[in-house]
Structure formats: structure tokens, C-alpha cells
């Protein structure tokens, strides 16, 4: 795939970039390893000071950075600006909390002083996706660099300007050179970077296929890896739920980032007593959304990231309908310029259809009818994915069963799934392994060293 900016709202190619040569890539990895030897010894208070300055720059430049993201991936301008502010929040959170999270942990052993000390590993490769081009990166970088590691970013090839802007803002915030670097390389180079002895760990957010490849490469080299992969999150609605609230949140969650988020609600599992009413309201609300120019403040849903994304989603919808699903609304790609797909609702999802087994990465909601609570849990777990999920009920006994029995890394009650620095983030099953954010963030890419001082 070419490293290029293509405006999804028009389909126009705006700018292209040359990939690093083998010599340039080697030099960048060496620079990262060299920078690590100095960065690891920078006092935590100084690292925190730099991250607070970086947070202020992100807040000050949010609109400029947001425009870049909107041009490269088509996300609405308002959501792009909000994403940059979220990155600033993450920087401040780890500036304020990482030092305590990484403090020595004492252990009670008679006659000795014993502790666990967290020491950084070295250069960490981050393989990041295009859909949240800033947040995905800072979600890794803030805790990993506060722990004393250095960062190497292999960003998606359709967001080179976002990738370069991130490196630039680190430098302008006063971070030492090469502590954080962007690598403009293709996916074929990832295994080579993982195999390099100077690179000590890897984190990936992306597809299941990409996760398998990265995990295999990291395992071969016996290196730490974290994977955040796809999701097909259940959104369970039971009769006690407030339908107005449930429908409103269903629409917001399903169309977040133009429907292109791993933690979008995708499978709406509704008790039969309220299924008809919920489906009708959901269809009406989705049909009422405004699709258009992502820079227009009145736009609810912008374009998908690429023409291929539209083709894939359209084929999945068509195949699901052909298998017997009901098309409630939408289902026809835009005919003009740009990569647009309308908000769509499918119901009566057949077993084995794409909507049943695959992740639909776009503004398409799939509705299942559950006969009772047991059936709702069965349907929720009938997926290879297990990233997040949300349940909508005011019955405490139902809440407890759903929380206990739905197989996901995250479950939200009467709130749709989201990520925030204070809360651990990650999945189960084919949605990956490892955790990011909260205290897991700084402790992921460290050596938890046992220190035993006899007679101490």
C-alpha cells in the first residue's frame, strides 16, 4: 500500500511520501536505542514535566491537528478535535500518576529487604491503525515513555501526515530527539523491525490477521507483545431499560467515528418484548442522520476511510440480506465522489452470515431478537470476538448475570463502551490480549525485577 494522504470525502490523492530505505530504517532504530540509554535515566519528575507541556501543545493545536485527521481519514472535524483533547488528557493523567504506578513494591520477607522494581525495556514498536490516528498512538506512548522506554511508530499507511505531526509535536514540546520517532515504512517491514535485537517489545492495534502475524513474529523473538484487535460488541437491551436512552446511545455508539471503531456497538441483542419497538426507533433514528462533508458541523456521519472499505462493507451487507436478513434502512453506497456509506440497520440476522460472524466496520447496526435473558447471553457470546460490550437493564440481578457471563474484556452497564485513561482497556478471545491504560499502561513494557537484599 502506498504511503499517501487520500481525502475520503472526495477520493482525491493529496500527498505521497517515500518509504524509508533500509539504511534509513536501521539508523532510526539505532537512534532510538541510543536515546533510550539517556531517556531511562531522566528523572520521572522531568518526564512528567515534558508530558504536561506536550498536553498543553495538543490542546492549543487541537484544531490544526484535527484538520489533518479529517482530511486523512474522514472523521468529522468535531470528533477529530475532541480526539486531540483526549490525547492531552492522557498525557496529563500519566504525568500525574505514572510515577506512583511504577514505584517499588515491597514484600515482607523476614531478615531481608525485598522489593519489585519496574525498569523500562527499551525501544518499543507501536503498529497503529488509522481510525483514531492520534489517540491510539498516545494511548501507548504516554505510559510507555513515562516508564522510560522510547517509541517507534509504524502508523497506518493512509495517515502519514498524522504520524509525522505526532513526532513533530513531541519535539516541539521539548522531548529529546529520537525518544519518539515515526517510521514511514510498509507493513512488509514490520517483522524485520520486531526481529531487530535493539527493539524490545511491540504493541499492535489492528485487524485479527495483523495481530496473528505480529504475535507470531514477537513470539519467535521471545518479546513482549500486546494486541488490541477487532470487536463485534454486543449491546443487550432488556425490557426494564429506558428505550429512549437505549436507542439514543445505540445510535451514538454505532456511528462513532463513522462506525469505524473496534468498540462500536455492532450487535444489538434485544429482548423479544421490546424488539419490534427498539428496531423501529433505531431504524428511524439512523435514517434521520446527516451524511456528508466531515468538515461541516451539521454532519453526523462522514465518509469511510477508503473505497475498499465501502466495497467490503457493502458486500457484507448484501450477503447478509441475501442470506435472509431484513434491511430496515440504508444499504446503498453513495453514488457521488468520496467514500460514503449510509447508516444502515439489519434485522433477523441469519446464522453464518457476515453480520453474524464478521466485524462490520462502518455505520451498520445488526439487530437480534432474544427470547429471554439466557438467550441474550448465548447470542452475545456467539462471536469469535470479545472486546467490549454494554447491557441495558435496571434489574440488578440481570446486571450481575450479564456482567459475569458475557465473555468480553470490558462490560458497561447502562453506558456504551468507551476508553479513558483511568480505566483498563483490552479484550478477550480473538480481540487480543494484554491491557492498556490505567495502571496496566506503564507496567506493560517494563521488567518487573525482583530485588532481594539479605539483612536489609
From TrEMBL:
The keyword NADP applies. The keyword Transmembrane helix does not apply. CDD domains: ALDH_SSADH1_GabD1. One of its GO terms (molecular function) is succinate-semialdehyde dehydrogenase (NAD+) activity. Signal peptide: none annotated. InterPro entries: Ald_DH/histidinol_DH (IPR016161), Ald_DH_C (IPR016163), Ald_DH_N (IPR016162), Aldehyde_DH_dom (IPR015590), ALDH_GabD1-like (IPR044148), GABD/Sad-like (IPR047110). Keywords: NADP, Oxidoreductase. Residues 3-451 form the Aldehyde dehydrogenase domain. This is NADP-dependent succinic semialdehyde dehydrogenase. The lineage of its organism: Bacteria, Bacillati, Actinomycetota, Actinomycetes, Pseudonocardiales. Belongs to the aldehyde dehydrogenase family. Gene3D superfamilies: Aldehyde Dehydrogenase, Chain A, domain 1, Aldehyde Dehydrogenase, Chain A, domain 2. It comes from the Bacteria.
Amino acid at each position: 500500500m502506498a504511503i499517501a494522504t487520500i481525502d475520503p470525502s472526495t477520493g482525491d490523492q493529496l500527498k505521497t511520501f517515500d518509504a524509508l530505505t533500509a539504511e534509513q530504517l536501521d539508523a532510526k532504530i539505532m537512534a532510538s536505542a541510543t536515546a533510550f540509554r539517556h531517556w531511562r535515566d531522566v528523572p520521572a519528575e522531568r518526564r512528567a514535566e515534558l508530558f504536561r507541556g506536550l498536553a498543553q501543545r495538543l490542546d492549543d493545536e487541537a484544531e490544526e491537528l484535527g484538520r489533518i485527521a479529517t482530511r486523512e481519514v474522514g472523521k468529522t472535524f468535531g470528533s477529530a478535535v475532541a480526539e486531540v483533547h483526549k490525547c492531552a488528557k492522557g498525557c496529563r493523567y500519566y504525568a500525574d500518576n505514572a510515577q506512583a504506578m511504577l514505584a517499588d513494591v515491597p514484600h515482607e520477607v523476614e531478615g531481608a529487604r525485598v522489593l519489585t522494581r519496574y525498569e523500562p525495556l527499551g525501544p518499543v514498536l507501536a503498529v497503529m491503525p488509522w481510525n483514531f490516528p492520534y489517540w491510539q498512538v498516545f494511548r501507548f506512548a504516554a505510559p510507555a515513555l513515562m516508564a522510560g522506554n522510547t517509541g517507534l511508530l509504524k502508523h497506518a499507511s493512509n495517515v502519514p501526515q498524522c504520524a509525522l505531526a505526532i513526532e513533530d509535536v513531541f519535539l516541539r514540546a521539548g522531548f529529546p530527539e529520537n525518544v519518539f520517532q515515526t517510521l514511514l515504512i510498509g507493513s512488509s517491514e514490520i517483522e524485520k523491525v520486531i526481529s531487530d535485537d535493539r527493539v524490545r517489545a511491540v504493541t499492535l492495534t489492528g485487524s485479527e490477521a495483523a495481530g496473528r502475524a505480529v504475535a507470531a513474529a514477537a513470539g519467535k523473538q521471545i518479546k513482549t507483545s500486546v494486541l488490541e484487535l477487532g470487536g463485534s460488541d454486543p449491546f443487550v437491551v432488556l425490557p426494564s431499560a429506558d428505550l429512549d436512552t437505549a436507542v439514543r446511545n445505540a445510535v451514538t455508539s454505532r456511528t462513532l467515528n463513522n462506525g469505524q471503531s473496534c468498540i462500536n456497538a455492532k450487535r444489538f441483542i434485544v429482548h423479544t418484548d421490546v424488539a419490534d419497538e427498539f428496531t423501529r426507533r433505531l431504524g428511524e433514528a439512523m435514517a434521520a442522520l446527516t451524511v456528508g462533508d466531515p468538515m461541516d458541523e451539521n454532519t453526523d456521519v462522514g465518509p469511510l476511510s477508503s473505497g475498499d472499505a465501502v466495497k467490503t462493507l457493502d458486500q457484507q451487507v448484501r450477503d447478509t440480506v441475501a442470506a435472509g436478513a431484513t434491511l430496515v434502512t440504508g444499504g446503498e453506497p453513495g453514488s457521488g465522489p468520496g467514500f460514503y456509506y449510509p447508516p444502515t440497520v439489519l434485522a433477523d440476522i441469519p446464522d453464518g452470515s457476515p453480520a453474524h460472524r464478521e466485524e462490520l466496520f462502518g455505520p451498520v447496526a445488526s439487530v437480534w431478537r432474544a427470547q429471554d435473558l439466557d438467550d441474550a447471553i448465548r447470542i452475545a457470546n456467539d462471536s469469535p470476538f470479545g472486546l467490549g460490550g454494554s447491557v441495558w437493564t435496571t434489574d440488578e440481578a440481570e446486571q450481575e448475570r450479564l456482567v459475569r457471563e458475557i465473555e468480553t474484556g470490558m462490560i458497561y452497564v447502562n453506558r456504551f463502551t468507551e476508553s479513558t485513561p483511568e480505566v483498563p482497556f483490552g479484550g478477550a478471545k480473538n480481540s487480543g490480549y494484554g491491557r492498556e491504560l490505567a495502571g496496566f499502561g506503564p507496567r506493560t513494557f517494563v521488567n518487573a525485577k525482583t530485588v532481594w537484599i539479605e539483612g536489609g
